[in-house]
Amino acid sequence: MAAARVNSSGENNNVALAAMLRQCAACVERNEFDPILYKALGALHAYTGEFAGAKTSTSMQNEHAGSSSSLDHEEKQEPDFFGGATTNGRANSTVRSAFCDVPDLFEEKTQDTSSNSKFKHSKSADNLEDGSYFGSIGKSFKKFGFSQTQADAEADSTKHAEKIAKAAAATPKSAAPQESHPSSSAAAKPQTVADPNAKKMQTKPCFQRPINPSSNLIANGWIEQQRRSKMRVVWKDVLASLVEGRKPGEETTLWIQRQVMGKTGKAELEALHQIPMKWLEDVTYLDFYGDYRFALKIFNVADEFQFRTSDEESAQNWVLTLRSARDASVQKNKGRGNLVEGLSAKDMGLTNLDDWGDGLARANSDTVDDTTNTTSSAPASASAPASAPAPAGQEPKRRSIKELRAIAHGQGINTYGMERKDLEKIAAQYAPQPQNQQSEQQQQWHNQNQESTARAQELKRQQEAAARAAEQQRQQREAAAAAEKKRAEEAAAAAEEQKRQQQEEARLRAAMAERQAYLHRQRMEEEEQKRRMEEETRQRVAEQQAAEIRRRQQEQLRKQEELRKQQEELRKQQEAEQRKQQQQQQWHQQQQWQQQQQQQQWQQQQQQYQQQQQWQQQQQQQQQQPFFNGTASAPPPPPPPPPPPPRAKQQQEHPGGAQGGPGSPINMKYANKLETKSEEAEQAAITNIKRNILIHWALLPPMLQMLRPIDQLVSTIHNCFPPAYGVPAHDYFQKWKPIMHSDLVLSSAMGNTPNEDKLKKAVRKIRFFLHPDKLPKDLSAEQSFMVKMLWDVTSDGWEEFCKQKEELDWIRG
User: Fold this and answer.
1) Can you give the C-alpha Rg of the chain in angstroms?
2) Is the peptide bond preceding residue 643 cis, with omega within 30 degrees of 0?
3) Where are the domains of the chain?
4) What's the pLDDT tens digit per position in 430-479?
5) How many angstroms separate the CA atoms of 314 and 293, rounded?
6) What distance in Å separates the CA atoms of residue 744 and residue 755, rounded to the nearest whole number?
7) What is the pLDDT of residues 591-634, one digit of tens each?
8) Which parts of the sequence are annotated with region: Disordered (predicted)?
9) Is the pTM of this model over 0.85?
10) Class of 692-812 per CATH?
11) What does the DSSP 8-state code read for residue 707?
12) Which CATH architecture fits 35-110+119-144+162-170+197-386+399-426?
């Protein structure tokens, strides 16, 4: 009934696993993620660990037993990779895991190794890396159901960092590399160039072990996996992790993961392959490649998984570790049998890569002899503590570890790496019988010892035959390798000679080409220099000619300017003479007109005087007639005297001139002449001022018939203030601040059109400055005349500007 219940529960679990796998397939088809994927992976891992071993254990045992005849190496003393050895059936007292027989290449040797050791390892800081990989690996394994926690991973990282510091301080970077494997160094291999992709792996270790001995992580490292992408072969960086299965139902598994960027932008590990060690058919080191490859052969899988590392040591470590894990997994599944099957890797001489390929069927004859001796002496040591049975009602005395191991050794079981519970199970199964059955048990032990001795002798004979065959094959390979090496050396020498000749020819051709290039470059430089000198000469001549032409043009322009100035001066002189003649003519005409007016006035006065005389005579005659007629009328008033001539009038105005005083005619004559001369001088100065103001400031040249624009008059009026044109200076005119013409126009873009508002303000300023009420009282006649003339000209100019503006506004309107 119990078996039926177990079978029914197993079938239910299988049905549930199949349902989960179908759900996972649906998620994958929809490109979705669901936590059931991790759950299905854990259940699938448990299923493979439960059923895969039961089906393949017999075939694996037969395969390992049948491959014992293929040994091809000599028996040599192997080094102890753990600091202790199992001799004469005694195991080390330290409890180790099931994979402690795999050589740890990162631990230091505590004892000296012989000269024929297969491996010589050196601890180098370059092969170690920080413990960050263990932390991420521990998290990934926790998701898949493994027992390692994050605290263990952090402890591993801390211890690993301490080990890195110690290794960096103790070992120099220039440590000598380890010796190559004997099997790979026997045959001559061609020298190959390292793959450039291997440089990317130098920053990450290819193979390393955890610092924590209780960790379920056996080894891990960043290696490259060969994959196919778009009809070509590529190498991808992956993280290989070998994890030991310790719980019931767990299997030792090789995880292949790659680093991807998650949805949060952080680096995560994605599982690519999950390979239980039961599935491994073979692990092969591909020594015919130069990039340190090894291949994994899986049962019922046609293609092999190929990986490569950056150095040979890491590749060999992976091969040895994977083979050891595979053999340990097979041994765990089929149970611990006789002494030959339970031997350690060192006892069986399986330290080379070629030795591990033959499985656990081989055993060293010396070890078998030692275990036989141990078996013969085991009953005596085991019967002593168990001879006296425990009294009734009392619990039996607990056996010590030595007693338990003695019992196991008595049954021919290797106790290397076993714990106390395993030893107790063996002791409970193979406990000594009472005294009446001791002879029968000793007889069975004796028979087993004889059978073991026979098997060991047969195995030794087979090993010797295999060793002789292997020696012959080795000699043949060495001869072929020597011949191949000689041919390769000859071919290399011929190739080197040919390469040297080609290099010499290439050097000569390069030297000739360089010489020709130098001559060509020198010739081109000379031509370029000659052309540059000619160009400079032509340019200098052209500059001289241009300078001469410019000088002549300037000379011609200067002469033309001088001629124009002379003509201008001559024209000005002619105009001045013409104006002077015109002024003289005007003055003469004015004098003549004045004389004519005076004469006409004099004639009129004479006529009036004559008329008055005639009228007076007539009046007198009229008055005399009534007198004579005897009338008594009064006489009429006497007529007024006739107006005297100008000189007579002046004499009358100044009586007493005959006496020779100041009012005498003679004195008045000279006084009038002096006054006339002063008036003429003042009139000439005023005329000169008027002429200079009109010519140099008011009128517009060259015709001098129109006033200048008001903006020009306002901006240049300060040039006409005294002491200009010979007028005496005065402090009042020093107060005037000149007005710039640029302050009166709109802009140069508008054709220098005057701004009406600014111009009005400037005119108001001039009128305020020249207003008669604002002028000082001590101005001379010439200064007053100049101010009055400037006032009149500016007023006329402003009126002309306003008139033109009104006309323009009328035309525009």
Assistant:
1) 70
2) no
3) 35-110+119-144+162-170+197-386+399-426, 692-812
4) 765 444 455 666 677 677 777 877 877 887 888 788 888 888 888 998 99
5) 10
6) 6
7) 888 888 888 888 887 788 888 778 877 877 777 665 445 444 44
8) 58-89, 153-210, 364-398, 431-508, 520-578, 617-669
9) no
10) mainly alpha
11) B
12) Roll (2.30)
